[in-house]
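Co-fold these.
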Amino acid sequence: MTSLSAKIQDVFDEPACDKNRGKDAKARKEGCSKPLTPGAAAGGCAFDGAKIVLQPITDVAHLVHAPLACEGNSWDNRGAASSGPTLWRTSFTTDLTELDVVMGQGERKLFKAIREIKEAYAPPAIFVYSTCVTALIGDDIEAVCKRAGEKFGLAVVPVNAPGLAGSKNLGNKLAAEALLEHVIGTVEPDDAGPYDINILGEFNLSGEFWLVKPLLDRLGIRVRACIPGDARYLDVASAHRARAAMVVCSTALINLARKMEERWDIPFFEGSFYGITDTSEALRNIAELLVKKGADPEILARTEALIAEQEAIAWKKLEAYRRRLQGKRVLLNTGGVKSWSVVHALMEIGIEIVGTSVKKSTLEDKERIKQILKDDNHMFEQMAARDLYAMLSEHKADIMLSGGRTQFIALKAKTPWLDINQERQHPYAGYDGMVELVRQIDLAIHNPIWSQVREPAPWDCQPAVKDEPPSTTSGTASLHALKKFAGTMADDFGEC
Amino acid sequence: MVRILSQTKSASVNPLKSSQPLGAALAFLGIDGAVPLFHGIQGCTSFALVLFVRHFKEAIPLQTTAMDEVTTILGGSDNLEEAILNLKTRTKPKLIGVCTTALVETRGEDCAGDIADIKLKHAEELAGTEIVLANTPDFSGALEEGWAKAVSAMIEGITRHGEQARQSKKIAILPGWHLTVADIEHLREMVESFGLQPVILPDVSGSLDGTVPDHWVPTTYGGTSIEDIRELGAAEHCIAIGEHMRHPAEVLQKMTGVPYVLFESLTGLEGADQFFSLLSAISGESVPASVRRRRAQLQDALLDGHFHFGGKKIAIAAEPDQLYQLATFFTGMGSEVAAAVATTDMSKVLGRVPAASIQIGDLSDLEALAGGADLLVTHSHGRQASQRLGIPLMRVGFPVFDRLGSQHKLSILYQGTRDLVFEVANMFQANRHAPTPEKLDPFRKQETQDGARSSPLTGH
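Predicted complex below.
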């Protein structure tokens, strides 16, 4: 546990994190985990965070050393996509029983489990995750992994991020530490080149990185490793030979980027593939970093040409939605896809942002959002379920974009909702992704069910909700008749 | 006699189980105005919550005592106290259902003692809120055990002790966790059709049936009322459904003297016949015409459907009672249970499952045993095995996260059995293999006889 505590101290003191930089020495020492309120807490644990960061590595067997719940309640639940191997979707756990816990058989069972997996699946590596109970009973997974790795001749990587260590975000960072300590730099690639980059913190949800990768391909830029989305073990192991890196989800993997810069001189920048301007900016930054590291400067002009071409196409596609979405009010409530760049693109086609959560945004992001929205009142850290429900019930927004956690608040308030977090069905990255996001907003807002579900039953005596007039369909006449009927009822009976 | 094969692997691959606290939470979710509270790390709750939401497509009230490294060392009683008080002020629940997790159980915390202290210390503040504890470490049991423990705990903690004046029309019903919203709604209607008044504990049909409330409710809305649980002892009779409900039924009987009848399964003609005969006997009413009509419809469904079932090989993975329910249904239609996987060997019902053997294990065991089967039957996590084996998957139980409406699927009594017959027969028809000269070639058949499906001749 002491080495774990030291590691936690270390990742909390992140010089590349601007939140951390803004603190005084004392506050910095206290770390960034906020005490939770029992009975009023939401969110995952450190193990959850570690698994999220590592599990999309597709050809690795991920073995969770725990009683059933940690893995049994959570496997195969995220929408990362793989272009090949499927082993990462197979769930492995030691499923500790009472007897295992009482008799102290955890380490032996773990060792045997590693052997079984190696024999049955022959993966290039096995990642072993510690959890609360196995940490509490003192199982030394580092020792077991070392021994098993030597004995079976494969990489067995301990991921020491038990849930009780802290938050999901801490788990993200501890996972990165495991990669730095045991994986990255262990394999020398024989094909390193001047246009090799790493993308860090990209999860390839719904395969969305595949909307971006062709742009890089076009420029002759090779993704040495995308960590973790659609990654293979060998890509990650040889990631130290990339020339530059982009950090996509900075709150998750900033420590990985900074330490790779320190150790292997890989410069990085923080960027995003969400939104048009951000995507362009990311391509620009990648090209510039590569040139700084010795690539031919002609790539800069090619990059600009590609950006100009792709932006024009995207804006043209978006323009088609202006007529349908002008003046629509969007509430953004999530940690994920909500950079200022998405806000910017939505506003560009006439959408109004009535609120945005900035819980996970960087200071820089907040500054930009403030400038774009021209009103701080639209920014909030977090909104209670009850307030959110009230706001949506009063039709103060035409749609909420958020994660699954608040999905049913919107739906029960009979408000259109779009998933923009990890369970989402659609890819939103890159130029095409932004167009897809707007298309999905359009589809959600204009779905004909909204007028149906908001209409009270004909025998209930409230006046009908006069929302948008139903567009011309065959059922219009009878619908009008019904509305009239409902209106008469309300008039006749007055308040009831 | 069925052979029970115990698990020999050290690595569980593609778990079949959901955790025990999740089962307990599910039972508490069947109570009106309830909030289940996991005593453990916030991650335990977060995983369970996400899984519930993916299955029910509903906002689920579920909270955590949010233990951390320090409280794990010092003990979690303060967190438990703070969580209960916070829940009380924030959500004003009628019931807080505390489910312990592996962490606090491994520490060996005296949660019952802690809760007694908290109740005593804050008697005034906590008035109007029942607090019930289910000891549900993740390292043993699964949904069945967790659900049953929560129901027993509610009866022990809330139901009035001692013999009560019996209400002749009142029937206590203790359904197993595997009954859906539709099952429970149907059960109620059927019981009421005999002029009886059912009290169902827990009743997820009121709370998890996907309705749209007109204001924000932070607890469950609908389900068994606390008052009904308190007066459960006034029932004339108790009906328990599923072997795992025997313990709660016995607790009720011991406390209040209410006798119980246990149905291992209500699926299939026979089980339904017994059930309706019992209702008729208790109520003194003859079986209503609508029920008779449904029985006739089931008879007809059996006649129409049996063509598709005969000789089919079925591979089922489920918790014991659901395994029994489905295995008897399929064998009752002329199919064979070629592979059976269960979560535990502790249930007595396993000995009566119509299969040659039952493997205690996971979905990788199912995948290994199901080669050559015509149908896989398990929850949504069976989708990968189904894809790899090229065998259709019938989704049952929990979790079902990649299909809508699993809560509204009926699987019990005449009508539910009829629906099941149609569902399965339609799956077989949809996956029909057209005859080809190669498949029918008598010489080829002689070579490959062993590895073939139930019969290469029956293409349907």
